[in-house]
Amino acid sequence: MATFQELARDYAKRIREALASDGFTSRSRISPQDLRHSRTLQEAKSIKREIDDLIYTQSKNPLSEDDKRKIIEQIDQELGLPRKIQKGYNIVESASNDDLSDLADEIENVLGGKK
């Protein structure tokens, strides 16, 4: 199995590609309707399923919730999601852009299993 950092880098790349495909940028006005049928949301859901299905190479056991959170946190770092504080279970707050924050929140909710 790849390292958590390698996985996070690959997942973040896929999310960035989906964001670009949808035309979402840090200056975009993103409504819930824009996100609802976006490639970005579909990719985030796909990544969430993949993370949930990861297993440890040696034991063949599913990854612990703690290790899943570590991967998600590394995805956050790879994406450079704007945030001032993190509270609860991976909820991102924007330092400056409400629309990007909403998108980040949505991605976090999907990756954190809340959607």
Summed up:
This protein is 59% helix and 3% strand.
Describe it.
The chain has 115 residues and is mostly helical. The protein is 59% helix and 3% strand. The protein contains 5 helices and 2 strands. Strands 1-2 form a two-stranded antiparallel sheet. A hairpin with a 3-residue loop joins β1 and β2. It is elongated, with a radius of gyration of 14 Å. About 12% of the residues have low confidence.
Any chance you could write out the topology, listing elements then pairs?
Elements: H1 4-22, H2 32-36, H3 39-53, H4 65-79, E1 86-87, E2 91-92, H5 98-111
Antiparallel strand pairs: 1-2
Structure characteristics:
115 residues, mainly alpha, two-stranded antiparallel ribbon, 5 helices, 2 strands
Radius of gyration: 14 Å
Number of strands: 2
Mean pLDDT: 79
User: What is the rounded distance between the termini?
Assistant: 26 Å
Q: Give the fraction of residues assigned to helices.
A: 55-70%
Oligomer: single chain
- Please identify the structural class as seen in this structure: mainly alpha
Helix tally equals 5
Spatial strand arrangement across the major sheet: 1-2
Give the CA-based shape.
elongated
| SS strand fraction | under 5%
Provide the succession of SSEs: HHHHEEH
Largest sheet, in brief, is:
2 strands, antiparallel
Give start-end ranges of low-pLDDT stretches: 84-97
